[in-house]
Amino acid sequence: MPxxxxxxxxxxxxxxxxxxxxxxSAYQGPYAVMVDGYxxxxxxxxxxxxxxxxxxxxxxxxxxxxxxxxxxxxxxFVADSAQGLGIGRRLIEHMTGEARAAGLAAVRVxxxxxxxxxxxxxxxxxxxxxTATGRVHWDRPELSYDLAAATA
Length: 152
Known about the structure:
Blueprint: E1 4-8, H1 14-22, H2 42-47, E2 50-55, E3 60-67, E4 72-78, H3 87-101, E5 106-110, H4 116-121, E6 125-130, E7 140-146, H5 147-151
Parallel strand pairs: 4-5
Antiparallel strand pairs: 1-2, 2-3, 3-4, 5-7, 6-7
């Protein structure tokens, strides 16, 4: 396993995070509309807790964005080349630690349907379904990381 560091993202990471999102094989075919033209902007990164997993050469392996006011995991991506290395699990563990430190009791996730199993394996529980709206033409699973229960 490569040496991995999880650090706070900066506005300078914007292009690399945007490239990771737009290039994700999880968003091909009917899901491509979700990332078409999507940008992880510098202002977004500076305003929200966005953390990036990088290797020893500062290559981006994955990242997440936690919206503290909404208690929601807004973005979570692992580079295709880093799939299966435990990066996603490490990012989720980091995210739940950051959420606990911020005083959150739970973190909501509206998941990309193919990612639901990953979230369940990392401790989330299914809480419902978000129905299709706008550019999203499919229902999405709604999950929650219950942080108070996880520490008990």
